[in-house]
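Below sits the subject:

***
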Amino acid sequence: MGAGAGVAVGGTGVAVGFRNATTTNAAVAPPAIPATNAISNSRASVIGSFQSARSRVYHPSTLTKRDDKSGRIPLLGSFEARMRRLGSNNEGWLVAVSGGPDSFALLDLAFRSTQRTPRSLQAITVQHHLRPEAEDELRTVQRWCNEREVPHLRHDLAAPPTPAAARRARYEALRTAALQHGLPSILLGHHADDQVESILLALVRGAGPRGLAGMKDRRSLGQGVQILRPFLETPGHALRSHAEEQNLPFHDEPGNLDPKNARGRIRTVIRPELEALRDGCGMAMVNNGALMRAADRALHARANHLANNTDRKIWSAASEGLRLAALGLRAPNTTNVQLRPLCLAIADEEKRPRIFAVHGGVMELTSRELVGPKVT
């Protein structure tokens, strides 16, 4: 797509400007330098992934540091193996990079992988204009990409009203760019610590097995485009170590450690307390994801059968958990807390018709039937 082209993001109400910083993707061999010492394990603490905000100095001559005399880069092999397991064969990659250590490490590893196995690679930065320093961070990413002839796209979005709106707009922008540039796989740098945060947030809002499974490592966005998260089982400190060892010019966002927001509070207060209570509990949550996904599939099959029925007797005979799951299918985007009064009412002795509010409408419970939801 030519420079300066624009596209409207469907359903988000914001305009996205696409600008391509470079237009080629030639393989560029990085300069060899002497090996460095092995990565220190001293950063393996719970909050070791997070340091005070700063900008790193960019030294092109030190971009290819190795961890030992063999020239091995620890994360590269595991990254490539994980991408194979995720089913990413020879298709091109679109790497979402904000300029932080996690996404910069992902971009660097993806670039190195394309030097070993040629494939199309582009980077993309979504600019929300929420922080004054974000523009400098974006230009740093552009400069890094330009020096390696990796095409870089910037997508400008109007400041969203909520984090959820920002996330939806960002994913729609990524999907649109992937379609326009023929890159079916969008790579994101979410790691195990991000997964723990997602699971804890799902737990406190009363989510079921699907929420407690955390983020999926592979998720379809439709039209043949998929999101891939290769690092969901990799601790964040490993990505930071890679970024530091390779002297990547990453930036830390101060808000990541702000206890006033939910994720910042988990990182600085809650997660350390949980790890003190039970060492390794974070990775245990991550590893529990497969079990939660299996439980969700089994529950969904039974809940789907119940959701398609209107007979109150059949509903009341089901367990409370199954009723909640089926109601969730009937009324998407309604929390279990909101659905619980209806769930309990189904099994009580009351015969008079009652109306229960759900997201976007109401459901009616009579002596014989459960009807709805009806849009209000």
